Amino acid sequence: MTRWAVILAGGVGSRFWPVSTPQTPKQLLPLATDEPMFVDALTRLAPLVPPERTLVLTNAGLVDAIAALAPALPRENVIAEPRPAGTAAALAWAAHLIATRGARGDVMISVHADWSVRDAGRFRAALSSAADIAERHCALVTVGIVPERPDPGFGYIQPGAEVEPGVARVARFVEKPDRARAEVMVRDGFLWNSGIFVWRAGDFLDEVAALTPEIAPHLAAHPDSLDGFFAAVTSGIAVDVGVMERSSRVLVLPGQFGWDDVGTWPALRRVRALDADGNATSGPVHLLEARGNVVHAAGNGVVLYGVSDLVVVTHGGLTLVTTMERATDLKTLIASLPPAFRDSQ
Predict the structure, then answer these.
(1) What is the pLDDT of residues 264-309, one digit of tens each?
(2) 261 Cβ contact partners less than 8 Å away, ≥ 6 residues apart
(3) Topology of domain 3-260, per CATH?
(4) Which residues does 277 contact at the CB level (< 8 Å), separation at least 6?
(5) Which residue, 143, 94, 105, 140, is CA-closest to 123?
(6) How many angstroms separate the CA atoms of 124 and 129, rounded?
(7) What is the pLDDT of residues 125-165, one digit of tens each?
(8) Would you place residue 237 in the very low, low, confident or very high pLDDT band (cuts 50, 70, 90)?
């Protein structure tokens, strides 16, 4: 089996304002560890897939930054999407490249660049198992995360009938539920929809051709033109909706390896090492009688005394202070900011 890796590294990550900007989005920041999240993703995959078979799809404006962080990657493997068209289009183009440069039977492992994974060894073992399953069953395989909590911030997967021990058909995908429904689904054995997908390139392209008219005709019409394909496809189609929910060939493998999508500042309390009082800190920080805070000091030093459950971020002369609860919705704050604050970064 020949394996390829596809890393999706687009997006802005406004929920990590003021540190995250269009020029330095979440995947380029050292949030979960002391390395940029994209570098963490590459490091996790390196034992499975060599650089010459690793493709990165990113925004056109990030190509140079991505290439600088990954000097071992061939430059032609860093692919600039002419416009954000959705994950279905991005993965269809990646599968097309793999089938062209390699073979339709080559296995494609798709991950995102902005995740945290506590146990990289178990992560790779799950991907290897998924690759074997994809080849054995000619299936589209997703790794569903065994939930650690009823989280309304994730989509969910309901496993159906088993096809072999530990591997099931997907009964259905569920969009982000409210908390009460998430609690019920966790009790009923649903899995988090991680966005980890593994399939043979040809199997995925066959399903796109059969099920995704928003994309398939344009791939056939522009097989040699990245710009032509992305200009023609229907924008905003997620692979979950455009392919996986429409396919009868989708299998799910449960995974437990400490996966987190690190979606907001409060998530750093889950993925970073904590001090004795449960604080997650980065940079020059001093805390006294302070508990359960997230502090990211990328500018001035931060001193906290006698406070709990705050998010404090310093960056470029600007300081953000909010609560753990309100930090999950920074879009409302950003929309209210005068230009002098919003554009100062």
Answers:
(1) 999 999 999 999 999 999 999 999 999 999 999 987 899 999 999 9
(2) 112, 114, 115, 116, 154, 194, 195, 267
(3) Spore Coat Polysaccharide Biosynthesis Protein SpsA; Chain A (3.90.550)
(4) 287, 290, 291, 292
(5) 143
(6) 9
(7) 999 999 999 999 999 999 999 999 999 989 999 999 999 99
(8) very high
